[in-house]
């Protein structure tokens, strides 16, 4: 009898644990809870909280990307449809979702520019191509949205020209100070200082970091702030705006309050966004620097082939690295400098086999940095202007692949070229930038994201930018893959496209 009672009690505890957040209720640590991402058909789960009008965050997300085209998705319908739009993450931008690093305790999701979460009805993980829902939730009616708060108080003091515009509480631990003015270069050992109690005191305070200046440790203010810029204060861990009564510009040396602001105790701050740590890149994650090709009188032709980048660390500096990237005249995804009123030839050899998405790469020039034009939702595609001629899908050619020479001996080149197709299949188009062409464009693949690089449109080529060395290549291996495909065709007759394609892959792997 007792054990039954205990058992029931435990069961109800478990149930309470699973539902410990109430829908549309504010939680100061996480934001407003709007539900769990879940679906009977997939193993997706996670608790979703609204941070502010343009951001939400998911905790304890379990998600194994089971296919290539999954996205976080916002929709005006209660379930995801093709009319919805992608939501972005730091890790993947607008590109398809892959696995998130295990050490991430949260995934932060952003709404595209000019839109707000309350423009939508549902949030999901969605496959765009197969129109399949991998887990979703419907936003509650009258969804509460945490809001940053402007305080009506400013810093002002008699010494060292201390002044500021109003303070803006972005979230629980982040405070913006508009137009900060202070002769930090003259003031002795001064810090931003925050603490509890009716008045500013040395013993009840703690130093506060300035974003951008105090990333590793908090140092005294030594800059002469002239009011021309805003600064952002970050309260230390374990502190937040609800647990301080004042913020001071405080002289540590002589224990003097140069000027302070009182934090309101009424419910003005009741609905503040939770603190979301910003992702700090360390130096190792910085993207690698790109090569350069200038469109000089000797270089009017650019040949676009692809290359594997598995052996390259930090290609993009984040998880968004693609498998292959464009190589232009043998140089890996360089910046191109092209002159106005000059016609350049673009030769395309990025593969045209639709069956293998990695090897189907139409080349296009556009003002979109990430590429993947045919993978964009209608809403996203409308924002892109294309500068290459014809429909994006038309600019495809045979496959030429730069391979990394893994077991290279001293006098062999680091890379070599493999091609599958016939030289007469190479597709070319002309591109002539003119007065109206924007000064920065991008070359990309219509079918895969992040394969390209920048194109700077200039009136004169820059002299202070050095050209990268082109790697000479010969076309001896031009036919190898095509011939193996032909052989396979002969052996198995007409139904061998798949087998032949596998031969291609195999040949590439074996090479
Ligand atoms: C995520 O899971 C951990 C471990 O089960 C738990 O402690 C934490 O509270 C969960 N986070 C949220 C926001 O529920
Ligand atoms: C919402 O919160 C995120 C994360 O803290 C922040 O990056 C973004 O600027 C905020 N947006 C607004 C409109 O305050
Ligand atoms: C560019 O290629 C064309 C043939 O496609 C050739 O006639 C021309 O000489 C080349 N120009 C340069 C500068 O190499
Ligand atoms: C694009 O390719 C299709 C199919 O090969 C062809 O019919 C069409 O004329 C091409 N369009 C342009 C503008 O080149
Ligand atoms: C400049 O190029 C665009 C195509 O990108 C074309 O539509 C426009 O007519 C050109 N302008 C001039 C002045 O040639
Ligand atoms: C390009 O041509 C236009 C019209 O022919 C001319 O006005 C412009 O100055 C030229 N620009 C350059 C950089 O040569």
From TrEMBL:
Residues 31-140, 153-264 form the DM13 domain. Keywords: Repeat, Signal. Pfam families: DM13. SMART domains: DM13. The keyword Protein transport does not apply. The keyword Signal applies. Residues 1-20 form the signal peptide. It comes from the Eukaryota. This is DM13 domain-containing protein.
């Amino acid at each position: 009898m007792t054990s039954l009672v205990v058992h029931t009690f435990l069961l109800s505890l478990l149930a309470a644990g699973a539902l410990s957040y109430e829908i549309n209720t504010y939680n100061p640590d996480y934001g407003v809870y709007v539900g769990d991402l879940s679906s009977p058909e997939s193993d997706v789960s996670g608790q979703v909280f609204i941070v502010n009008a343009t951001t939400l965050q998911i905790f304890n997300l379990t998600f194994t990307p089971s296919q290539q085209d999954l996205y976080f998705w916002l929709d005006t319908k209660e379930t995801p449809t093709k009319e919805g739009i992608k939501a972005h993450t730091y890790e993947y931008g607008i590109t398809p979702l892959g696995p998130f690093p295990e050490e991430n305790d949260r995934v932060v999701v952003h709404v595209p520019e000019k839109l707000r979460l309350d423009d939508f009805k549902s949030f999901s993980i969605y496959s765009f191509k197969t129109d399949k829902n991998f887990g979703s939730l419907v936003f509650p009616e009258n969804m509460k949205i945490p809001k940053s708060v402007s305080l009506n108080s400013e810093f002002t003091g008699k010494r060292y020209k201390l002044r500021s515009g109003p303070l803006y509480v972005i979230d629980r631990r982040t405070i913006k100070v508009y137009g900060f003015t202070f002769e930090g270069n003259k003031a002795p050992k001064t810090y931003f200082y925050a603490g509890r109690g009716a008045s500013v005191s040395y013993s009840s305070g703690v130093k506060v970091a300035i974003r951008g200046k105090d990333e590793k440790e908090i140092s005294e203010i030594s800059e002469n702030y002239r009011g021309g810029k805003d600064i952002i204060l970050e309260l230390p861990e374990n502190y937040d705006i609800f647990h301080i009564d004042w913020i001071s510009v405080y002289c540590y040396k002589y224990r003097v309050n140069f000027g302070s602001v009182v934090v309101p105790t009424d419910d003005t701050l009741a609905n503040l966004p939770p603190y979301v740590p910003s992702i700090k890149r360390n130096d190792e994650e910085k993207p690698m620097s790109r090569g350069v090709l200038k469109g000089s009188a000797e270089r009017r032709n650019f040949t676009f082939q692809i290359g594997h980048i598995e052996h390259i660390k930090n290609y993009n500096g984040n998880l968004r690295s693609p498998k292959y990237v464009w190589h232009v005249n043998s140089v890996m995804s360089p910046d191109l400098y092209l002159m106005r009123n000059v016609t350049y030839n673009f030769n395309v050899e990025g593969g045209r086999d639709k069956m293998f998405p990695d090897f189907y790469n139409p080349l296009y020039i556009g003002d979109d940095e990430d590429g993947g034009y045919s993978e964009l939702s209608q809403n996203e595609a409308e924002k892109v202007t294309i500068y290459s001629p014809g429909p994006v899908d038309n600019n495809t050619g045979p496959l030429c692949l730069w391979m990394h020479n893994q077991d290279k001996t001293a006098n062999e080149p680091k890379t070599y070229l493999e091609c599958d197709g016939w030289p007469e299949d190479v597709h070319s188009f002309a591109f002539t930038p003119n007065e109206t062409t924007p000064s920065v464009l991008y070359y990309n693949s219509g079918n895969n994201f992040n394969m390209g690089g920048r194109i700077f449109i200039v009136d004169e080529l820059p002299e202070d930018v050095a050209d990268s060395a082109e790697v000479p290549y010969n076309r001896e291996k031009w036919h190898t893959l095509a011939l193996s495909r032909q052989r396979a065709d002969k052996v198995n007759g007409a139904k061998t496209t798949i087998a032949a394609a596998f031969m291609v892959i195999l040949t590439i792997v074996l090479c």
